[in-house]
Structure formats: C-alpha cells, structure tokens
Amino acid sequence: PDQFQIVSYSQKVAYAALISQMTGYYDDLSNHTPVTDDHLRVGSILAFRDSSSWHRAKIVRVVNLHPLAVALKLVDQGCFKACTSPGDIQPLAERFVQLP
C-alpha cells in the first residue's frame, strides 16, 4: 500500500499491444536464448512469463541462482512476482526495450 505506480490511461492500448507482441515472440521457442548467470543480477531487465503472457521485468532480488529463485518487479504493471522456473525468463530482446 505504500508504493503504487501510475500508467497513463491513454497508453493502455500500447501496453496491451506490447504484451501481445512479446507473448507472440517468446511463445516461439526458436526465439529463446540461453539465460546465463550474467543475466540474473539485481537491476537486470528481462522478459518474464506470468501465466500465459510475457512481460518486462526487473530483478529486484536474487535469492538463489541454482536452483533459481529471484524476485521481480513487472516494470509496466508495477507489481512484484517471484520466479523459480528458468523457463519463465528470457533475456529481453532489443525490440522490446523501448516504452510504447
């Protein structure tokens, strides 16, 4: 409750399109690249699969590398998630770095 994030309503369609594009891209396994320990540092921005869609996420805490346990902030939604599955993270492709 002491932290919140505001996203412009006028950008809602652009953010929804970004999630859709990322999901289409990362659901194609031929676009996956190996995730190394260098990608798993506090402050790194990655793609993260939450349920059935992919989002941009920032690592806020590394609990363990092997087995994986990291805390993430979904940068476009402002919420926090935990990731323990290496298959749910990917390096962020250059095409998804810019804000919509």
Question: DSSP strand (E) fraction?
Answer: 25-35%
Rounded mean pLDDT score: 92
- What would you call the quaternary organization? single chain
Largest sheet: 5 strands, antiparallel
Low-pLDDT ranges = none
How far apart are the termini?
27 Å
- How many individual helices? 1
Structural class: alpha+beta
The largest sheet has its strands arranged as 4-3-2-1-5
**Rough outline:** globular
Which percent bin holds the helix content? Answer: 10-25%
The radius of gyration computed from the alpha-carbon positions, rounded to a whole number of angstroms, is: 13 Å
Secondary-structure element order, N to C: HEEEEE
> How many beta-strand runs?
5
Explain this structure.
The protein has 100 residues and is an alpha+beta fold. Helices cover 15% and strands 31% of the residues. The chain contains one helix and five strands; from the N terminus they run αβββββ. It has one helix at 12-26, and strands at 45-50, 53-64, 69-74, 80-83, 89-91. A five-stranded antiparallel beta sheet has the order 4-3-2-1-5. Strand 2 and strand 3 (69-74) form a beta hairpin. It is globular, with a radius of gyration of 13 Å. The protein starts with 11 loop residues before the first helix and ends in a 9-residue tail after the last strand. The relative contact order is 0.22. The mean pLDDT is 92.
